[in-house]
Write the C-alpha cells for this entry.
Amino acid sequence: MAAPAALLSAVGVALSGLLFGTPFLQMMWVTALLVFVGTYAVSVGILARRLALGRTLLHQIRHSRFENLKEAKLARGDELNDLVRQVYRTGQVLQREMAELRRMEDYRRDFIGNVSHELKTPIFAIRGFAETLDGGALENAKVNRKFVQKILRNADRLDHLARDLGEIARIEQGELIMSPEPFSMRLLAHEIVESLEPIATKQSVRLDWQVPADLPDVMGDREHIRQVVVNLMENAIKYNNKQGFVRLVARVVPTGEASISVIDNGLGIPAEVIHRITERFFRVDKSRSRAQGGTGLGLAIVKHILAAHDRSLIVESREGVGSTFGFTLPLAEISIQKPEDEPALASA
C-alpha cells in the first residue's frame, strides 16, 4: 500500500505545481512527474511483482503447499531473481522431504499392520490347539500328537518371522557385514540342490542344476549368496505344479561376469505386480503363500543381500508359464585350488 500512496502524493504535488507555478516550473513538474511515474512502473514490473511472488510462495511453503512453486523458477539475473530462485529451490527440497516423510509414514503404518497380521495367525493357531488339548484332547491318543505337531509348526513359523525381521534390520542398519571372497559356484550349487532335494521330492518337483565344470570361481559372501539361492529355489519349489521342475543355472556371460539363475515352470507372476515382489510381506497369492508357511520377507532379504554386493535381482515371469530369478557376480581373479580328492560332481 505504501507505493500507491507515494504515487498519489507525487501526482498531487505535481498538479499543485502545474496550477500555481510559472511555465518553466510547470514544465519541470511535468518532467518530474513523468520520470516518477516511469520509475514507479519499472519498479512495479521489475521489483514489486517478484517480491510479491516471493512472499506468496513463502506463505504457501509455510502451509505445506507447493502448487505454484514452478512460478519461482526464474532465469538467473539480478540479486532479486537469485533470491526468488532460492525460494524455489528451498521449496523443492521441502517438497521432496515432506513427500518422503509421508511415504515413510505410510510404509511404517503398513509394516506394523503386516507384522501384526503375520503374528496373529500362528499365535491364534497355537492358542486354539493348546486350549483344545487342555480341554480334554490331551488324553485322546488319536489327536493329541497331531495337535502338538501343529503347535510346533506354528511356533517354527513365529521363529522364522522373528529371524527374518532381525536379518532385515541388521542389513539395513549396516550391522550385517558382507565378506566377499572367491568361491566355487559349482560346489555351492551341488550343496544347495542336495539339501533341497527332500523338499522338492515332497512337492513332486524335479530339481536339476547346470554349472559348467570349468566355470571360474566367483567373488561374493558365500554364505549370504547361499541364502539368496536357497531362498529363490525354495520359492520356485513352493509355487510350482506337480511334476514341475526347478533348475539352477550358472554361466559366464559376455559382460565377463557369472550369471546365476533359478528357472521354473511353475505358477508365474502377473506382470502388473512383478515390481512389488521384493516388498516386505507382499504376496501374489496371500492364501496360498500363508498355506505354504512363508513369512513374506524372503525376497526382501534377497534384495538387501544383493544390494550389499552392489547387485540387483532380475526377474522375468509369465503367469501360468514360469519364472526366472537371476543375478550376477564378478569373477574372481584367482580361482581356488580344488583338493585332489574332491569327488566328481555331475549336474543332473
Observations:
- Residues 179 and 223 are 9 Å apart (CA to CA).
